């Protein structure tokens, strides 16, 4: 009996030690993009409020784009990060900066996340992980198949301007604003096809 209890205890200790390693967001299957590289093009759908709309990266040509990948809707860290972007969203709008979130969840999960926390920016749909794979964010938490928490700032010419491979969800939005405040506005002429803020859903 004591032997069985000892074995169970050892297994629990080993399991507890392995879980953080398996769920470590520092592991992604693809290499991260580097500053100066062309941001991979994508064409998908985004959830804006309770609406689903088509979107392409090229829609935002001429504008800075913050593309942030996160593991899962409504989890503690992801909620902190999204709410930080929400709370700083007026400043991003004033600077003409587009904010896009991206994870593997579907439209219903994104809609619920947006509604619960009044998120004013779109969440991209990436069911096949094509966007996450192109940006080195896919399977960042291998045991769960969730995206790595990473952010890219893309300039107005479609180039990677800045990479944030390690993110503190609660202060990340402020970190980006402070960094961009010291930089000039992006080069390139903005097009009218996509405003900095997502369009309001029709009643």
Tags for this model:
6 helices; single chain; 7 strands; 7-stranded mixed β-sheet; 203 residues; disordered C terminus; Glutaredoxin; alpha/beta
Detailed description of the structure:
The protein is an alpha/beta fold. The chain has one domain (2-181): 3-Layer(aba) Sandwich (Glutaredoxin), CATH 3.40.30. 32% of the residues lie in helices and 19% in strands. It is built from six helices and seven strands. A seven-stranded mixed sheet has the order 2-1-5-4-3-6-7. Residues 8-12, 14-29, 188-197 and 199-203 have low confidence and may be disordered.
What would you say about this model in short?
By secondary structure, the chain is an alpha/beta fold. Helices cover 32% and strands 19% of the residues.
Query: What percentage of amino acids are in beta strands?
Result: 15-25%
How many β strands by DSSP? 7
Number of distinct helices: 6
Cα Rg: 19 Å
Distance linking N and C termini: 67 Å
Q: Order of strands in the sheet with the most strands?
A: 2-1-5-4-3-6-7
Strand-and-helix sequence, N→C? Answer: HEEEHHEHEHEEH
Averaged pLDDT? 81
- In CATH terms, what is the architecture? 3-Layer(aba) Sandwich
CATH class: Alpha Beta
Q: What would CATH call the homologous superfamily?
A: Glutaredoxin
Low-confidence segments, ≥5 residues, pLDDT <50? 8-12, 14-29, 188-197, 199-203
Biggest sheet character: 7 strands, mixed
Q: Please state the overall shape, judged from the principal axes of the Cα atoms.
A: globular
Structural class from helices and strands?
alpha/beta
The number of domains is 1
User: What helical percentage do the residues reach?
Assistant: 25-40%
CATH topology group:
Glutaredoxin
